[in-house]
Amino acid sequence: MKGDDGIFRTSPSLIPSTTQKMTNTTLDKAIAAVPAFMDRISLFTKKLRLAQYADGSIYDYRLKIAQAVFFFNKLFV
């Protein structure tokens, strides 16, 4: 199936139903628990990328922050 922008897209009928509804990452769980966390983690990621941190470091920082937010179910100042 080809979209208007020339990119080939997978038909929704070919995607397993578990993939469409799965929120299995810690980051997804933290965002589901505290919706405002999405804006905060996006800003944090942008700042780290501008500071030229390594992708692995950014991933590790985001994971630990998401674990804390998910555990306590709140944002920290």
Instruction: Describe the largest sheet.
Output: none
Helix content: 55-70%
Q: List low-pLDDT spans.
A: none
Distance from N terminus to C terminus (CA atoms, Å) equals 46 Å
Query: Structural class, from secondary structure content?
Result: mainly alpha
Q: Treating each run of at least 4 consecutive H or I residues as one helix, how many helices?
A: 4
User: What is the N-to-C succession of helices and strands?
Assistant: HHHH
Radius of gyration: 16 Å
Care to count the β-strands?
0
Q: What is the residue-mean pLDDT, rounded to a whole number?
A: 82
Shape by Cα distribution = globular
Strand content: under 5%
Detailed description of the structure:
There is one protein chain. This protein is mainly α and about 80 residues long. It is built from four helices and no strands. Helix 2 crosses helix 4 and helix 3 runs antiparallel to helix 4. The longest helix is centred in the C-terminal third of the chain and has 18 residues, at about 55-70. The protein starts with 16 loop residues before the first helix and ends in a 5-residue tail after the last helix.
